[in-house]
Amino acid sequence: MEVLSSRVLLHPTDPARSREFYRDQLGLAVYREFGSGPARGTVFFLGGGLLELSGRAEQPAGPAIALWLQVRDLAAAHRELAAKGVPVIREPKREPWGLDEMWIADPDGVSIAVVEIPEDHPMRRRTS
């Protein structure tokens, strides 16, 4: 199987609230929008991938899904998100596996790890 592109699909319980969170609070850039009214969808750039908010769920996805967002500067991301009123579930810290992580959640409780990879971490080195 040759994968040409990929995206994460979320079906929020309140699409307008989730669009506002990802666009205005997290500051994700919009890749495209489609449809109108309740069928309106928004696709955001998500680093090397895409995040699509479409449809509407009766129940939040909650802990069944999590997003992993790598940033250049975790301290700066923490300050920016706090200034925008995004609740931080777990403050930034160095984890035993060597990554600097902070955890937030979207309006439906989807967990979001905001991660900085330190310069000396093995993920920064090529293995081939």
The amount of helix comes to 10-25%
Into how many domains do the coordinates divide? Answer: 1
Quickly count the helices: 2
N-to-C SSE string, H for helix and E for strand: EHEEEEHEEE
- Report the CATH architecture: Roll
Percent range for β-strand residues: 25-35%
The low-confidence runs, each spanning 5 or more residues with pLDDT under 50, are: none
Separation of the first and last Cα atoms: 22 Å
The number of E-state strands comes to 8
Pairing-aware structural class of the strands and helices? Answer: alpha/beta
Write down the overall mean pLDDT: 90
At the fold tier of CATH, the topology name is 2,3-Dihydroxybiphenyl 1,2-Dioxygenase, domain 1
Biggest sheet strand order reads: 1-4-3-2
Q: Look at the structure and give the CATH class.
A: Alpha Beta
Q: Tell me the CATH superfamily.
A: 2,3-Dihydroxybiphenyl 1,2-Dioxygenase, domain 1
The main sheet comes to:
4 strands, mixed
Shape: globular
